[in-house]
Design brief:
alpha+beta; four-stranded mixed β-sheet; 6 helices; 4 strands; globular
Length: 145
């Protein structure tokens, strides 16, 4: 019998405007499973999850269940939606063979948008974690048209 999830910790990139926006969105939603949102790579993340590759958590969304389950990339987004009252049905659909391509395309689009907001960052440069915003306020690019 699978172990139920009672709480999830979402590790998000606090230097990414899109990630911070999604953090705020998650916090405004009615949660069926409580979500703790912790900056990826932070001292708190390292304290809670010493076994994780924290450099990788800055490159891809990672969600950790209270029983040690680890979800990355598309699965992480799906489990976040699953935790929300108004989005659980959508999460179930996105986890099916019919929904998985939509989930994957959405995650890839978010990654491209994130890269456009932050600029390329391999996690090793001198400005790693600093973001690429002049005065600390980043704006999402305006779609063409």
């Amino acid at each position: 019998m699978p172990t139920p999830v009672g709480r999830l910790t979402v590790l998000y990139d606090a230097d990414c405007p899109l990630c911070v926006h999604l953090r705020h969105w998650l916090l405004r939603q009615r949660q069926l499973v409580p979500l703790d949102l912790v900056p990826a790579g932070s001292q708190e993340a390292r304290r809670r999850f010493p076994e994780l590759d924290h450099t990788a958590t800055l490159r891809e969304i990672t969600v950790v269940g209270d029983r040690g389950q680890v979800y990355r990339e598309t699965s992480a987004w799906i489990v976040c939606l699953w935790a929300l009252a108004d989005h659980r049905a959508k999460a179930h659909w996105l986890a099916t063979p019919a929904g998985q391509p939509f989930a994957r395309v959405t995650v890839l689009a978010a990654a491209k948008w994130r890269e456009a907001l932050k600029g390329p960052d391999d996690g090793t440069g001198p400005d790693h974690g600093a973001g690429h915003c002049e005065d600390g306020r980043c704006e999402a690019p305006v779609p063409p048209g």
